[in-house]
Fold:
Amino acid sequence: MRWLGLGAVLLVVGCGPTPAAEYGEELFGDSKLSESQYNTFSCATCHSTAATPPQGKVYAGLSLHNVASRPHWWGGYETNLLDAVNFCYTAFMRGVTPLTPDDPKSRALYEYLVSISPDAQAPAQPFTLVKDITDVPRGSAEWGADVYRAACQDCHGEAHTGKGRPSKLAPILPEVAADYGVAFPGVAPGLVFIEKVRHGRFFGVGGNMPLYAREALSDKDLGALLAYFEL
Ligand code: HEC
Ligand code: HEC
Structure:
């Protein structure tokens, strides 16, 4: 528990859901937590809170069950929980000003995260970033269609049409790759696609899409997705 300046809040831990935790749960599912009018993501877009991985759904982020009981976050890059949250808030949710410890919204969110952390201590979760992009073997296109629905469709809408996507800022897949040959001459479009999925907006790639670590999406699932998209 390393949310600096929140000592007083710790006193309520273990007393069941508090009104603040309930407000925090609302904020967790609310894209309006971010002040940016272009943001359509809430914490719940990318994180489950379940103790066991949900079936039929692939989240970019880890489950936040027991998150407040972990010793560090982001594979050890973050040693303060608020910083770990602010990473998502600014990088993905287009938040301009990071959440501060004494902001009532941060406090409520923190209490909610504590309320979904029943164990006093929990192990840090592995987070394996794929830094060097290499091609992956293509898998089953049928499987790839399932991967698309489970991992990408919430934000990108239906494949080939984008139907149902919450924001047009997320391009239609795989059609967006049609320009890759011109934009990235000499690089196979499949590789550009893999880089986007593995790096999100990092390592020179722009945007606000989350990255997928190996734990979130295996190379096998990625290969199936590429087969489905004939990339
Ligand atoms: C667009 C997707 C996205 C959104 C929105 C998002 N996150 Fe994340 N978050 C990630 C990814 C990807 C990671 C890195 C993988 C991981 O550790 O879960 C991450 C990591 C984290 C971690 C570190 C977990 C650990 O143990 O390493 C915390 C804590 C966290 N997010 C909390 C939040 C909270 C709270 C919100 C809402 C304010 C939020 N995130 C919004 C994608 C997102
Ligand atoms: C949380 C929402 C979200 C999820 C989930 C998501 N994306 Fe995205 N994606 C976006 C947004 C927003 C953009 C446009 C901004 C950007 O490029 O980051 C984007 C852009 C892209 C691009 C285009 C990059 C370009 O400009 O050429 C590709 C390719 C892509 N996503 C693939 C995927 C795949 C494959 C998945 C599933 C494994 C996925 N995305 C899941 C939100 C998401």
Remarks:
- The two ends are 44 Å apart (CA to CA).
- The first helix runs from residue 7 to 10.
- The mean pLDDT is 92.
